[in-house]
Amino acid sequence: MKTIAQLTYIPLETHNPREKVQEILEHLAQFDVEIEVGYLGTTIIGHPDVVFEAIQELYKIMAMESAMFRFHVELLSPEAG
């Protein structure tokens, strides 16, 4: 089974939000997940344990590096395989 999560990170107190988003994408690349970067968010697909670990780690990084942010996580029904 593979879990699908759609993630949207919005840094609220920065002059260069693209840079902050790129940093988060670089951290995400360290996990064993498929990554599809879209205009308004990123989709990750992988083993449920890895997907949830990635979400937790990204949240910790955001909390340390950004004073204010929004992090939207949408989970879709799992895929077989």
Could you explain the architecture of this structure?
There is one protein chain. With 81 residues, the chain is α+β, with helices and mostly antiparallel strands. The protein has a 4-stranded antiparallel beta sheet. A hairpin with a 4-residue loop joins β2 and β3. The longest helix is centred in the last third of the chain and has 18 residues. The radius of gyration is 12 Å and the shape is elongated. The protein starts with a strand and ends with a strand. 16% of the residues are buried. The mean pLDDT is 92.
The largest β sheet comes out as: 4 strands, antiparallel
Work out the helix count: 2
Task: From the alpha carbons, calculate the radius of gyration and give it in angstroms.
Answer: 12 Å
- Low-confidence region ranges: none
Shape verdict: elongated
Decide which structural class fits the backbone.
Answer: alpha+beta
Write the layout of secondary structure elements.
Layout: E1 2-11, H1 17-28, E2 34-37, E3 42-46, H2 48-65, E4 69-79
Antiparallel strand pairs: 1-3, 1-4, 2-3
Please describe the structure with a list of short key phrases separated by commas or semicolons.
single chain, 81 residues, alpha+beta, four-stranded antiparallel β-sheet, 2 helices, 4 strands, elongated
